[in-house]
Amino acid sequence: MTVSLKYAVVERERRFLIAGLPEGGLVETREIVDRYLTGTRMRLREVRAEDGRVVRKLGHKVRLSEGPAEVACTNFYLDEDEWAVLSALPATELRKTRWVVRRDGWVVAIDEHADGTLVAEIDDGDRVSRAVPEWLDVVMDVSGDERWTGVALAR
């Protein structure tokens, strides 16, 4: 099947298990609940910001290559009624705290899971890179490991 990217944004993410949160550069924290709709490539996401704002959206991800590192993402923002209808669908759920770190020209999203595991994500955008900030205490690169995708962690 050919994938149209007309309304999608391409994400090229690398993921790393890290030993701890870096010192300095923390700019925001968000509480995230992801609901992966059973039998689909769709995800409901609720994001609660520190200031109390809540954003809810329906996302659809299509892989552009082998493995989870390159996907086309389309999002629809939902109001409370739409959220109520869609969140009633069967799904697996993943809760996490997201720390956003801006430091030395890098933007790194670090997800802290319920068991304390820290997974850092670097979105390379249009460029392919292997660089990693020296201040990120990497334990292991899990970019190509299906076990570290959100849908797998939600199971």
Features:
single chain, 155 residues, mainly beta, 9 strands, globular
What does this structure look like?
There is one protein chain. The protein has about 160 residues and is mainly β. It has one domain: Hypothetical Protein Pfu-838710-001. The protein is about 5% helix and about 50% strand. It has helices at about 80-85, 150-155, and strands at about 10-20, 25-35, 40-50, 55-65, 70-75, 90-105, 105-115, 120-125, 140. It has an 8-stranded antiparallel barrel. The longest helix has 7 residues, at about 80-85. The radius of gyration is 16 Å and the shape is globular. About 10% of the residues are buried.
Outline:
The chain is mainly beta.
Fold topology:
Layout: E1 9-18, E2 26-37, E3 42-49, E4 54-63, E5 70-77, H1 80-86, E6 91-103, E7 106-113, E8 118-123, E9 138-141, H2 150-153
Antiparallel strand pairs: 1-5, 1-8, 1-9, 2-3, 2-6, 3-4, 4-5, 6-7, 7-8
Described by strand count, sense and barrel closure, the largest sheet is:
8 strands, antiparallel, barrel
Low-confidence segments, given as residue ranges, are none
Tally of helical runs: 2
General shape: globular
CATH architecture: Beta Barrel
Strand tally is: 9
Percentage of residues in strands: over 45%
Query: What portion of residues is helical?
Result: under 10%
The H-and-E topology, N to C, reads as EEEEEHEEEEH
Could you say what the CATH topology is called?
A: Hypothetical Protein Pfu-838710-001
Tell me, rounded to a whole number, the average pLDDT.
92
CATH homology-level superfamily: Hypothetical Protein Pfu-838710-001
CATH class: Mainly Beta
